[in-house]
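ugh ok fine here u go
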Amino acid sequence: MGRTRARGSLCIAVLSAAAISILSAQSETGKKGSETHDHRIVPMDQARWTEPPKGMVRGAPSIDPGGTLRYALISGEPMRPGAPFTVRLACTDGYMAAPHWHPTDENMVVLRGTFAVGTGDALDSARVRDTATGGYIFMPARMHHFGICKGETDVLIYGTGPFQINFLSAPLAGAHKSTSK
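structure:
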């Protein structure tokens, strides 16, 4: 009976030490999390418009965009793999986002204007679908797509990094034509 009691005491001591270790680690994680994850409020008119981070845009657009595009980091680290991010892209009326793809899923919410989006390797305005203010767009990783801003347009984009814009090479003439009957 003495050995059983000793084993029981040893088991309780080991479990107690493990519980204290786990609780201590959770406490430290909570402290670190509260230091790096403060809440954030960014009013629409207080976005800080800057140049996109180096390496975010790869390649050259296959078309003249026909307008201007602005970039604002709202939160996170868009270039860091596995890190959550939120950015805004604002474009002038008629701006065309040439065919491109991203290595991760892209979530978009239209904050203002209309963002027309299509899929494929060549920009074809007949193949776009308009998404008005308040609308949501999801593009899976690696899907080739393009967009056209109708009116002054502002889009919130969020996801998990890295957020990279990989432009496709200039398509061959007629490559945007549908082959389905």
